[in-house]
Write a structure and sequence with these properties.
The complex is a heterotrimer of chains A (279), B (380) and C (567). Chain A is α/β, with parallel strands linked by helices and 279 residues long. Chain A contains eleven helices and ten strands. In chain A, helix 4 packs parallel to helix 7 and helix 6 packs across helix 7. Chain A starts with a helix and ends with a helix. Chain B has 380 residues and is mostly helical. Chain B has 15 helices and four strands. In chain B, a hairpin with a 2-residue loop joins strand 2 and strand 3. In chain B, helix 3 packs parallel to helix 8, helix 6 runs antiparallel to helix 11 and helix 12 runs parallel beside helix 15. The longest helix of chain B is centred in the first third of the chain and has 27 residues. Chain B is globular and about 70 Å long. In chain C, strand 3 and strand 4 form a beta hairpin. Chain C is mostly helical and 567 residues long. Chain C has three domains: 174 residues, no CATH class; 76 residues, no CATH class; 292 residues, ABC transporter involved in vitamin B12 uptake, BtuC (Orthogonal Bundle), CATH 1.10.3470. Chain C starts with 8 loop residues before the first helix and ends with a helix. Classes of the chains: A alpha/beta (279), B mainly alpha (380), C mainly alpha (567). Chain B: It is found in: Cell inner membrane. Chain B: This is Urea ABC transporter permease subunit UrtC. Chain B: Its main location: membrane. Chain B: Keywords: Cell membrane, Membrane, Transmembrane, Transmembrane helix.
């Protein structure tokens, strides 16, 4: 049955959608909108009545102690986890809860994982090629050919992430920081409207961190970027607006200075952070 | 539309494919010449039995290529590919049964002997059409393909992967084996289909036909190899590898992973069916033991020994193991299962990349010593 | 094989005092009733009486008369032997029953010196014997010195019936029950009268119930309506035969009543059949649980695919066989000792597999699957070449053979009952180990987060070894149990490995309760399907069902939820 349905709707599937023509409707407000989302694993509420709004072109940092539900939130937005209740809208038209991962990705939501996940046996170039916004159905993929335009686009991104010299090497040999960049590069190839970035600077050197900050702030404006990060210094260097998650719901929201002076935040998060750092 | 033709031709631009095809051509030609040109008494003469044996190895090699396509590139360890092979074989066997005509023991003009024996008075509906070669040859690919389509659709849609998939593919072939053992199924029960006489009018017992089947197996292997190579060197092949190594990531890039898996799985099943169809006229029988889980898992060993994700490794592995099997089961039948079991352990523990991995390692060392990184397939 | 105890004259006398109820009967009435019953039996069997007078005159314990009786048996003609048997039945000699039993068992033999002896044990070359008349042991005799009194099938039937009648007067309740059992449907006019009086005096309710039914069948045949009341609700097949015959009788009232009684019986039979299916299903299920539960530990808890699990089961079964070889004549003791031994053998083999192969393949489940498959081939072949490719015989001890008859239509075989109980005990023990012991805690910790567990000082490697040993040991236990139900051969394990995986996958990996529920329910489903689909088809249907079920619920009946499981 669903084979027939999927065959019939082939021309309507959002496989080939260049984000420039994205149907995401942001005229009436935010690009991402989560309302009263709850999800529990074996009785433990990982996300509890979460409400979150991200504006178009915004760069938002989300912080929170371990287990605050940051990664689960990303899982919900990208369709990996289904919430028990609540609503998730992309623009004002797309109900993300009714879609699967590839559909959501095709809509223009890109995700960078906490642990850098690149295709290790494929070359850097091929990693970017696969990420590229293109017709991602089977036959077009089988018969796809490389052309000058695509190569230019990949070269451009290689330039941005500084991996041009390594383009023909398998991604597996890259350093940790380089993998993080390659992953960001793959997100850029997708030309997403919304970038979800999970701990982009974990394990990076000071220098690499600076470059990453540059990269992310450069992206904001054209794309909306949501950064989940632990490193307070890094968050302070890029953040305009910060959301603090705690026990699956929003504890505080505002500028870095505002939230870091909030006594509740200090108690549940910064306090713990200070303790950890002093250890 | 020329782009769709190009992807099929792409393997011919690769050195590894050309080497493979060259070696295959040379081997097949050599065997043919030694068989045809030399007198039977000559020390280098290859007799019809050996030609037949090589033909069998070649059809096994095609089967191994099919398994490598899904295991090596898609990461799906199918423990049920023997089922597709056997289904292709049964489709061919049904055609060969119908070709016997009234020359069976009971002399019935339509019904095969075993149906007369079971007192059936007419052909079951699923035997209809198998008297026509084109229909039977189509079914050789379509029946395994259809089973793979239904099974794969269900499995991949529910994201059954890894060991779960391996276990249920094994259950699938086990269930089919039990089913084909039943007389009521109409496939000859435990005896299977046998006593074949003619294929397309050629006497199956003549050495010319055997040579023809050997050559056909060689051609089928070459074509199957090129097809698989074309798939794995395309962007689709890279999506497969991406799926194998990081399925979730591939999904987030916007690929409908389950459809890619299904596509490749079905192609592989059809190739396995073709291999089965070539195998059956060469051994002269098809019975439910081809469905046994042991056989399916043995195929995986061929690929593991040869080296997965190389395709040519699968061919090497299939021929090596089966040659060893021929030698062992002739000389020391008891030792064969020890050897086979030992191979499983040794290959997985000490030789995870197989024979091809050893070859590649040597090549890469030499290349690294030259200090040059050869170009990438993606830009070719 | 063990023979029933020989009852000589002395022991027979001593035995009479043991049963208080027995004392109420005078030996006088006993003798006369025995005679009457025996006479009618002879009529039932349609045999002529040739020497009734001689028999009546024979005084008890008269060895000369007894010798004559036995001499009559030592003839070539079977009809003549039949007459001689009748003579013994009528002789009123207290040793008659033992002679008849010995004759039936082929142990009544004649020695070279003309004495009649009873062979006590006919294995080996020299047989211990005792004198048939005095009951004194005569030591060993060579089989060549002995001449067996041969019988044929007709004589065998005659002997059984004769013993049944004689047995109605036995002191042993078991003998009386068996005898009453045999009389169902065999009562005729001559027997009916005496039987009614026997019923009055019979102290045992079950024997009495049976005799009442036996009598009622006769009464029904005579067209007596009230007899149906006595047959109401009986599940015995002979009762049903009698009622069926009555429905075709001349008297419409009796026929209707019989029909009604039959309908009631039919309903009860349905319930019994369902109960039987359930029992067989649970029995099959318990086997599946036993085979799968070790796998649930290694696969579910460690994520290790052990294709050699079936061969570990086989090792357990062969351990049982080896134990019985080591302790000949004591199959029960050997079986009990095989439980710890089977566990140890399989556990040690498991440790060898874990240390030798699996530890090198950590994190590569598919490779583990292939390597352990190789090991399974090697183990099978080892058994084939080392022991034999043929099946070995494992003896079922006496306390495990036989069955419990719940009623006439439902009897539960004891060996299956034991295996069912054993499976539940093993399951409970495993639950306890996992829930209540330090090892269980560590196993669960390592399962959930290996790195974290390590950093907390749990030696993950040690836990791996112990877990694997535990899972393998349980496979050995399964083998010990299976040796009582199925053939012990090199292919034993192969037959169970796919089923075991199905059970684990169906139940939900990493969930012991799931394995229990899945195993039992698959067993029952299989048994329910079997009558209308056939055994093979039922198995296919179950396999296809599971394959489809996994598509719907990839994580089984009882999935683990949470982030760790999503990975």
């Amino acid at each position: 049955m669903s084979i027939l349905r999927s065959l019939a709707s082939r021309d309507r599937v959002f496989d080939f959608l260049v984000p420039a023509e994205s149907p995401v409707d942001v005229r009436h407000g935010p690009i991402l909108y989560l309302e009263d989302v709850t999800v529990s694993f074996d009785g433990f509420k990982a996300i509890n009545d979460l409400n979150l709004t991200i504006d178009d072109g915004e760069l938002r940092c989300i912080i929170g102690p371990n287990g605050a539900g940051k990664t689960t939130m990303m899982d919900i937005i990208t369709g990996k986890t289904r919430p028990d209740s609540g609503q998730v809208w992309f623009g004002s038209r797309h109900d993300l809860l009714s879609m699967n991962e590839p559909d959501i990705a095709s809509l223009g939501i890109g995700r960078k994982f906490q642990k850098p996940t690149v295709f290790e046996v494929l070359t850097v170039f091929e990693n970017l090629e696969l990420a590229m916004a293109a017709d991602k159905r089977i036959l077009p993929t089988l018969t796809a050919r490389m052309n000058g335009e695509i190569r230019d686009h990949i070269d451009e991104v290689l330039e941005i992430i500084g991996l041009k010299a390594l383009h023909a090497r398998p991604a597996g040999i890259l350093s940790h920081g380089q993998k993080q960049w390659l992953e960001i590069g793959m997100l850029l190839m997708q030309r997403p409207r919304l970038l979800l970035v999970d701990e982009p600077v974990a394990g990076m050197t000071e220098q690499e961190m600076e470059r990453t900050a540059e990269l992310l702030t450069g992206l904001a404006g054209k794309q909306s970027v949501v950064v989940v990060e632990h490193d307070m210094g890094f968050v302070r260097s890029i953040a305009r607006k910060v959301t603090v998650l705690h026990q699956g719901s929003v504890l505080a929201e505002g500028s870095m200075d505002q939230v870091s002076s909030d006594p509740r935040v200090i108690e549940v998060y910064l306090g713990a952070e200070v303790e950890e750092e002093t250890l | 539309m020329d782009s769709s033709r190009l992807w099929l031709l792409r393997p011919f631009g690769e050195r590894s494919t050309l080497i493979f095809l060259g070696v295959l051509l040379a081997a097949v030609t050599l065997v043919t010449l030694l068989h045809v040109a030399l007198p039977p008494g000559h020390p280098l003469y290859v007799n019809a039995y050996t030609v037949n044996l090589f033909g069998k190895y070649l059809s096994y090699a095609l089967l191994a290529v099919a398994v490598d396509l899904v295991w090596g590139y898609l990461g799906i360890l199918s423990l049920g590919h023997g089922a597709f092979f056997a289904l292709g074989g049964y489709a061919m066997g049904m055609y060969l049964m119908r070709q016997i005509g009234d020359r069976g023991v009971y002399g019935h003009p339509v019904l095969p002997d075993f149906m007369v024996f079971l007192n059936w008075d007419s052909l079951p509906w699923y035997w209809l059409g198998f008297d026509m070669a084109w229909f039977a040859f189509l079914m050789v690919m379509l029946v395994p393909g259809a089973l793979a389509l239904v099974f794969g659709f269900l499995a991949f849609r529910s994201r059954v992967t890894g060991v779960y998939l391996s276990i249920i593919t094994q259950a699938l072939t086990f269930a089919l084996m039990l089913a084909f053992f039943r007389n009521e199924m109409g496939f000859g029960g435990s005896d299977g289909l046998t006593d074949f006489r003619e294929l397309l009018g050629f006497n199956l017992r003549s050495s010319e036909t055997r040579l023809g089947l050997f050559l056909a197996s060689g051609v089928a292997l070459a074509l199957g190899y090129v097809l698989c190579r074309a798939i794995v060197t395309s962007k689709l092949g890279r999506v497969c590898v991406a799926t194998r190594d990081a399925e979730a990531r591939t999904r987030f890039l916007g690929y409908r992973v389950e459809r890619f898996q299904l596509f490749v799985f079905v192609v592989s099943a059809m190739l396995a069916g073709l291999a089965g169809a070539l195998y059956v006229p060469q051994v002269g029988i098809i019975n439910p033991s081809e469905f046994s889980p042991l056989f399916s898992i043995e195929i995986v060993l061929w690929v593991a020994l040869g080296g997965r994700a190389t395709l040519y490794g699968a061919v090497i592995g299939a021929i090596l193991v089966n040659y060893a099997k021929t030698v062992f089961t002739g000389a020391m039948p008891d030792a064969w299962l020890f050897a086979l079991g030992g191979l499983f352990v040794l290959v997985t523990v000490f030789l995870p990349k197989g024979v091809a991995g050893l070859l590649a390692l040597r090549l890469r060392r030499r290349r690294d010593a030259d200090g040059s990184f050869s170009g990438k397939e993606a830009s070719a | 094989m063990r023979y029933p105890p020989m009852l000589g004259p002395a022991t027979a006398g001593a035995r009479a005092g043991t049963d208080a109820a027995e004392d109420e009967r005078t030996s006088q009435s006993r003798g006369s009733w025995l005679l009457a019953l025996a006479l009618s039996l002879v009529l039932v069997l349609g045999l002529s009486i040739t020497t009734p007078a001689a028999a009546q005159e024979a005084a008890p314990n008269d060895d000369v008369a007894a010798m004559t009786l036995l001499e009559a048996l030592d003839v070539d003609s079977f009809p003549a032997k039949g007459d001689a048997i009748d003579a013994i039945v009528h002789s009123d000699d207290p040793r008659a029953r033992d002679w008849l039993q010995a004759l039936l068992d082929g142990r009544l033999q004649r020695a070279g010196d003309g004495r009649f002896v009873v062979v006590l044990d006919n294995t080996g070359r020299d047989w211990p014997v005792q004198d048939a008349l005095s009951g004194e042991p005569l030591g060993q005799m060579s089989r060549r010195e002995l001449d067996r009194i041969g019988i044929n099938n007709a004589l065998r039937n005659q002997l059984r019936s004769a013993i049944a009648v004689v047995d109605l007067y036995a002191a042993d309740v078991g003998l009386r029950r068996a005898s009453a059992e045999r009389l169902l449907g065999e009562v005729d006019g001559d027997l009916a009268g005496p039987l009614a009086e026997v019923i009055e005096e019979e102290p045992d309710a079950r024997v009495r119930g049976r005799l009442v039914q036996a009598l009622a069948i006769y009464r029904l045949e005579q067209g007596e309506l009230e007899a149906i009341d006595d047959l109401q609700g009986s599940l015995h097949s002979r009762v049903r035969v009698a009622l069926n015959r009555a429905t075709n009788g001349d008297d419409p009232i009796v026929a209707d009543a019989a029909r009604e009684a039959l309908n009631g019986i039919e309903q009860m039979l349905k319930v019994n059949r369902a109960a039987e299916t359930l029992y067989f299903g649970l029995s099959l299920g318990s086997v599946l649980v036993l085979a799968a539960i070790g796998l649930a530990i290694t696969f579910g808890v460690m994520g290790v695919i052990n294709m050699a699990h079936g061969e570990l089961i086989m090792l357990g079964a062969y351990t049982t066989w080896a134990m019985q070889q080591l302790l000949p004549g004591q199959p029960g003791l050997a079986l009990i000792l095989a439980i710890p031994a089977g566990f140890m053998v399989a556990a040690l083999a498991g440790i060898a597999i874990e240390r030798g192969v699996i530890q090198f393949l950590k994190g590569r489940p598919l490779e583990t699957l292939l390597a352990t498959f190789g090991i399974s081939l090697i183990l099978q072949q080892l058994v084939r070449t080392g022991i034999s490719p043929l099946n070995r015989t494992v003896i079922t001890p006496e306390w495990m053979s036989g069955s419990i008859a719940v009623n006439d239509a439902l009897s539960l075989t004891l060996n299956r009952m034991y295996v069912l109980g054993f499976a539940l005990v093993v399951f409970a023990a495993l639950m306890l180990i996992m829930r209540r012991t330090r090892l269980g805690l560590e196993v669960r910790a390592v399962t959930q987060n290996r790195a974290m567990a390590r950093s907390m000082g749990i030696r993950a490697t040690r836990v791996d070894i112990l877990t694997f040993a535990l899972g393998s040991g349980v496979a050995g236990l399964a083998g010990v149990a299976l040796s009582q139900l199925t053939n012990v051969g090199p292919n034993l394990g192969q037959n169970y490995i796919i089923d075991s995986f199905m059970v684990v996958v169906f139940g939900g990996v990493g969930n012991l309760w799931g394995t229990l529920v899945a195993g039992l329910s698959l067993g029952v489903i299989n048994q329910v399907l079997e009558p209308w689909a056939g055994a093979v088809m039922a198995k296919i249907i179950v396999l296809v069902f599971i394959i489809l079920f996994i598509q719907k619920r990839p994580r089984g009946l009882f999935p683990q939820k949470g982030r760790a499981a999503e990975g």
